[in-house]
């Protein structure tokens, strides 16, 4: 049986028992119920909560609060570990007893149980120290990538690891998400969350220092009994920037990865490393502020630009289509195509342009995805997606056809085709899609505390699918 320790033949035989088969059936039924209940709720506005503090949606503000309240005193004490085989066997026995008790002790299991996540308490050099490094350096705007992008802004775009971890380790009294709970014992867990900040370490550490830290994190995680028991198949690992964690990815390919896209071109992920069967696509953190109901109403009469794009005009791989689109669309009176700039001024210009436009162009970047798509959604600007290889976040739950237009790259670069297509979209369809954007936008706003039907909530609902598939394969 793949992914299991062979230290006990009785353990292997037991895992094929009716307990497991019955559990799989019930989990499948509950998963359908779980996702159906969500699909019926996505058309409604998110619920209001007046008994808790207003959520922080700014990464910098939330990080300030988090570090002030949660960051512990330094403690990297190395504690001795028990014999590996003994720890794996004991954990396996504990999990079997726990699952049997839940299955036979609760008539509606697993419908009445939340997803149980064990959060590893890794040494702070993998967690808090990296957050402090970002906190202490984010004003250094001269730190750029090879293509001129400010690294701190990229870290914010890919900060899903922070938002998920901050919610999971918050006191239960402060949390609003009830479909996932943190457990303190590994034997009680459905999943194991690895809180390692792969993106911060990639961008803010020296190359060799980063690789060394990756190797240390790999050893720390793969030494855990839960990892050895399943070979990582029930572990969740955020790897949301395609450049991060590359040197050790192959050793953790069984884990459930949280990604920005699948990149089926093979430019960023090696064959066999990522798969829709086990991994999840999460939205980028928007660069612009949410245009709420009042903002949408006030901006309605100001949306006089037909099509807007502000960003890097030259990209690699699938993003090469940008240069062709610029050549096709430049000089049109009601179309704005601009090179992006960094800093607060660049953000303000992008936000203002999106709020004045009917459609926002969302072509591929260096990978099939782009943060610009999510900026458009939260700005009430209808995305025009030109990316042939794109996999979208929560695609099994959210119907993107209600909020975006999809155009093939070959059509988009044909002379006059794209503008004719957009001018033929009826005013009624535009109003309907903009109304849907208002309903969908909260699915893409990360916050602390995390909100029901926000991206943190949806990811755990989708993780249920990955967990079920893993159990079936196992």
TrEMBL record:
Keyword Glycosyltransferase set for record:
yes
GO MF terms on file? glycosyltransferase activity
Q: Which family does it belong to?
A: Belongs to the glycosyltransferase 47 family.
Pfam families (UniProt xref): Exostosin_GT47
Protein keywords? Glycosyltransferase, Golgi apparatus, Signal-anchor, Transferase, Transmembrane
Q: What's the protein name?
A: Probable arabinosyltransferase ARAD1 isoform X2
For this record, the Gene Ontology CC terms, alphabetical, are:
Golgi membrane
Where is the protein found, in the record's own terms?
Answer: Golgi apparatus membrane
Q: What InterPro entries does this protein map onto?
A: Exostosin, Exostosin_GT47
Please verify whether the record's keywords include Transmembrane helix.
Answer: no
Q: According to Swiss-Prot or TrEMBL, what is its membrane topology?
A: Single-pass type II membrane protein
């Amino acid at each position: 049986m793949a992914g299991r320790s062979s230290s006990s033949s009785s353990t292997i035989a037991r895992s094929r028992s009716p307990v497991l088969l019955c559990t799989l059936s019930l989990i499948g039924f509950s998963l359908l119920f779980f996702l159906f209940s969500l699909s019926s709720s996505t058309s409604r506005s998110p619920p209001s909560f007046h008994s808790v503090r207003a959520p922080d949606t700014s990464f910098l503000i939330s990080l300030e609060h988090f570090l002030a309240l949660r960051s512990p005193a330094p403690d990297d004490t190395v504690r001795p570990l028990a014999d590996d085989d003994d720890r794996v066997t004991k954990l396996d026995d504990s999990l079997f007893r726990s699952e049997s008790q839940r299955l036979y002790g609760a008539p509606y299991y697993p419908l009445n149980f939340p997803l149980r996540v064990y959060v590893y308490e890794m040494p702070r050099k993998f967690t808090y120290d990296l957050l402090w490094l970002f906190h202490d350096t984010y004003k250094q705007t001269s730190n750029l990538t090879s293509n001129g992008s400010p690294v701190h802004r990229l870290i914010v775009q890919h900060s899903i690891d922070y938002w998920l971890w901050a919610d999971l380790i918050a006191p239960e009294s402060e949390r609003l998400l009830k479909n996932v709970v943190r457990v303190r014992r590994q034997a009680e867990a459905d999943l194991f969350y690895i809180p390692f900040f792969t993106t911060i370490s990639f961008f803010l550490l020296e190359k060799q220092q980063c690789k060394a830290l990756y190797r240390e994190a790999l050893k720390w995680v793969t030494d855990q009994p839960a990892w050895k028991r399943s070979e990582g198949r029930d572990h969740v690992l955020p790897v949301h920037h395609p450049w991060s964690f590359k040197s050790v990815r192959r050793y953790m390919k069984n884990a459930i990865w949280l990604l920005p896209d699948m990149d089926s071109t093979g430019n960023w992920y090696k064959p066999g490393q990522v798969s829709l069967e086990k991994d999840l696509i999460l939205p980028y953190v928007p660069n612009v502020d949410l245009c709420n109901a009042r903002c949408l109403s006030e901006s309605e009469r100001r949306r006089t630009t037909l099509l807007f794009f502000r960003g890097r005009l030259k990209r690699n791989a699938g993003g090469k289509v940008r240069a062709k689109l610029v050549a096709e669309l430049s000089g049109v009176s009601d179309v704005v195509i601009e090179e992006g700039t960094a800093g607060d001024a660049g953000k303000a210009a992008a936000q203002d342009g999106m709020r004045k436009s009917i459609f926002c162009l969302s072509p591929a970047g260096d990978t099939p995805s782009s943060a610009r798509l999510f900026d458009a959604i939260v700005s009430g600007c209808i995305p025009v997606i030109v990316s042939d290889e794109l996999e979208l976040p929560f695609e099994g739950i959210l119907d993107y056809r209600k909020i975006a237009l999809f155009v093939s790259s070959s059509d988009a670069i044909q002379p006059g085709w794209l503008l004719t297509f957009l001018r033929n979209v009826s005013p009624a369809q535009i109003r309907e899609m903009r109304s849907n954007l208002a309903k969908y936008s909260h699915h893409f706003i990360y916050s602390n505390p995390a909100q029901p039907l926000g991206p943190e909530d949806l990811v755990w609902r989708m993780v249920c699918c990955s967990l079920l598939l893993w159990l079936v394969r196992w």
